[in-house]
Amino acid sequence: MSTRNRWIAVSVSLAGAGVCCLGVSAFFINFVNNTIPWTPGQSMRAHYMAVGQSYGQGFLFGFFFCFFLMLVALASWNGVRQTRASRP
């Protein structure tokens, strides 16, 4: 991987991790403030579906946050490996 490709991978993954961090933060804010989209007139099934959808969104953002962090780690590891290989 060239230096240019490594910088592109790191910049894309940091931007993606930032977006995912915002999504996870929004999930935690909804969780702490108890603002799950549900009205008292709905059934219990609708309540469980709203809670499940909320947790599903949090899981999705968390999964991609870990994915983007792993992409940063792999690009960094590749750069360190190439630097060590080029040394005499």
Task: Describe the structure using short key phrases.
88 residues; mainly alpha; rod-shaped
Outline the structure in words.
The structure is a single chain. Helices cover 84% and strands 0% of the residues. Helix 1 (3-33) packs antiparallel against helix 2 (44-86). It has one domain. It has helices at residues 3-33, 44-86. It has 88 residues and is mainly alpha-helical. The chain is built from 2 helices and no strands. It starts with a helix and ends with a helix.
**String of helices and strands:** HH
Let me know the average pLDDT: 87
Total strands: the figure is 0
Number of domains: 1
Strand content: under 5%
Task: Using the alpha-carbon principal axes, give the shape.
Answer: rod-shaped
The class by helix and strand makeup works out as mainly alpha
- Biggest sheet layout: none
Could you name the ranges where pLDDT drops below 50 across 5 or more consecutive residues?
none
Percent of residues in helices comes to over 70%
Rg computed from alpha carbons, rounded to a whole number of angstroms: 20 Å
Spatial separation of the terminal alpha carbons: 20 Å
Q: Helix tally?
A: 2
Layout of helices and strands, plus pairs?
Blueprint: H1 3-33, H2 44-86
Helix pairs in contact: 1-2
Short recap of the structure:
The protein is mainly α and 88 residues long.
